[in-house]
Amino acid sequence: MLDFRLDEEQQMLVDAISRFAKERVRKVYRDAEEDGAIPAEVVQSGWEMGMLPTAIPEAYGGFGEYSAVTGVLAAEEFAWGDLAVSLQIMLPNLVAIPLMLAGTDAQKEAYLPGFCDERPPRMTAALTEPVVQFDPYKLGTTAVADSDNYILNGTKTYVPLAGDADLILVYANEAGQTQGFLVPAGIDGLTIAAQDKLMGVRALPTYTVKLENIHVPAENKLGGVEGCNFQLILNHSRVALGAAAVGVARAGYEYAREYAKQRVQFGEPIAHRQSIAFMLADMATDVDSARLLVWEAAWLLDKGKDATREITVMKQYVDQLVVNVADRAVQALGGYGYIREYPVELWLRNARGFATFDGLAIV
Amino acid sequence: MIDFEIPDFIKNQQQLIKMVAEQAMRPFSRQLDEHEHERPQAFVNMTWPFTQQMMQRSLKPLMHNGNGNGHAPKKERTGPDYSALALIFMIEQLSWGDAGQYLCLPHPMLGGAAVQSAGTPEQQVRFLKRFTEGTPKWGAMAITEADAGSDNSSMRTTAVLDPDTHEWILNGEKIFITSGKLALEESDGICVVWATVDPKAGRAGIKSFVVEGHTPGVSIAKQEHKLGIRASDTVALHFDNVRVPYENLLGSAEVAQKKSSKGFQGAMKTFDSSRPAVAASAMGIARAALEFVIARLKEEGIEVDYTKPKHQLTAVERDIMEMEARYKAGWLLTLRATAQMAHGESNRLEASMCKYRAGEAVTWITQKAVELLGPLGYSRELLAEKWMRDAKINDIYEGTKQINQLIVARSILGYSRRELK
């Protein structure tokens, strides 16, 4: 039966993350953005909220309560606090969730228990490539079978914390199909070429990584001989990013709303004027509608349905919507919106990234 | 718990209504559009039995033991109220068939919504029982006046109590009454008329009265000629010393008090359910246009590839995806406001949100459909241009887009009417 209310457990989770976002993330996010690094203890506290271990099957040490719907609820709250911080807290997901969705039993046994530890394993994933016409279904990075190995070649970019990673899940084009490969750091031919200089999410260092004739053992291919259903992985990634976009949009909308109620011009708060009030009404409606599209997409995934069409439509809608909302948040603050003492300019920079951020989050 | 599952009985209901739409609505869409003020006979004949069944079910709890004395048994709310949900889905599917004809549904419609939200159980039985028997009947609601549109608290139609006969005497003129002629002249239906018992009292003076079909003194002042929904009966009503019994004032004795604004609040409460209904109708038209465009483009060999990255999409593919997204956004907002009703929660903010966003969406989607279909889209051979004209009403009635934005804005800002004009 149609219902848009959170159940008790979901509400408790959302409340807990909301508190964390307010009391911890919002205290550090601006300095983190300027410094290009997030305080380790904040990331650790976020990890200790236990989102991933809750989702991992009991057989591998988790609680076996995986749900994309719960995942998107969490992603929105974390991202409301700060996008870069949320992406770093959810970084282990980039390897763990694809393993849960597509890994062989041996791969799950080898890696999943590590994600239930007090500290997450240092792992990351590489999907995006430094081209204008990036297409995750037609990657430029190649994987060619060679007896017991795959040979990988190509260049990846936007790889979060690649410099600190022990293992990178690299997506590559194997005979026209996108497949994942678990690549240990330090392998011959893998080099961290440069730290990326991005418009936003600057608190989370990402890197460009070069792969030159890397030999990866065949058993490191995600899903083994069969490989993975990459479309499913991408769909799970896109609902996560959709939810994060809702969080960023909501942050902008709420900030603009409170500002407009306090900012007095011509003797009364600017929110008393329809030009501002209607803009805020539109922003509120945008945020709510985007959230409903994200929830529906996540719900379809939980039901095991192919939701590619719904998720593509949702993602394109939300990618533009978050920019429109963040832009109006800057506009509502006028000149102050352009000043880095206020957060809205950061949210506008972060918002524009969603059209590019394929594969940077997953639930 | 978050759930997007549609109950099976609604899925079955939708199949049945789709059949009605395909057999009794679509074949007559063009004819009724070109011959304004003709009645959709096939649709009326086919749907009247459904209305009777539906109204029997809905009145049953009020007519326990079949004696019809209208004393509602005390009933605890157990689980969600599915009827609101079923109604919204029905409206969506009927509007997919033809939005103008849907408005001619022989059903209490808005008048019924007002009676159900403001009337006593006795009144509900007295005014709605007629929809369970006999020949087709219609319900209507008369709020708007020439000088009182969105500002309906400044209405001038008066209701004066005749102390000798204990009757209300109504005088004034109401405009834009959907199914007004059907309800009052062409059947023994009902029309809920809003009037002031004290013009100086503002909102507190405004009460609602049920005027029954064929009541002396009611006349049709004008039949409108409209941009779209031409199959729908839209009239101006003139009330010249129209006498209705004292008990036709909707609500309890408290409502009748001159200083109580409960009556006006009742009108506003009706909007909480009528706005999602309008949004559902809008989304029905939007879906009709969207499905038609997708099917037609497919015939031309154009199919949207949902796995292509955005920069490789054609302009048409991008348009279709945006149409789908805006449709989905409007529909999910509508379902949310409806689910709140079903769960007995307040939905004033969400009802206005869905209404204005759905009206905006269908207006854009149907205009886009005409554009994408090129010379055929603009042609009266197809229904796309009609859907575009039909769609626009959803941006306007049950509160214009702007008035609903104002309601949303006040709600999110916590402002009164004085703070945000």
Describe this structure in words.
The complex is a heterodimer of chains A (363) and B (421). Chain A is an alpha+beta fold and 363 residues long. Chain A has eleven helices and nine strands. Chain A has three domains: 109 residues, Acyl-CoA dehydrogenase/oxidase, N-terminal domain (Butyryl-Coa Dehydrogenase, subunit A, domain 1); 104 residues, Butyryl-CoA Dehydrogenase, subunit A, domain 2; 124 residues, Up-down Bundle (Butyryl-CoA Dehydrogenase, subunit A, domain 3), CATH 1.20.140.10. Chain A has a four-stranded antiparallel β-sheet with strand order 2-3-7-6, with no helix packed on it. Chain A has a three-stranded mixed β-sheet with strand order 1-4-5, with no helix packed on it. Chain A has a two-stranded antiparallel ribbon with strand order 8-9. In chain A, a hairpin with a 2-residue loop joins strand 2 and strand 3. The radius of gyration of chain A is 21 Å and the shape is globular. Chain B has 421 residues and is an alpha+beta fold. Chain B is 49% helix and 13% strand. In chain B, helix 6 packs antiparallel against helix 10, helix 10 packs antiparallel against helix 14 and helix 12 runs antiparallel to helix 15. Classes of the chains: A alpha+beta (363), B alpha+beta (421). Chains A and B meet through helix 8, helix 9 and helix 10 of A and helix 11, helix 12 and helix 15 of B.
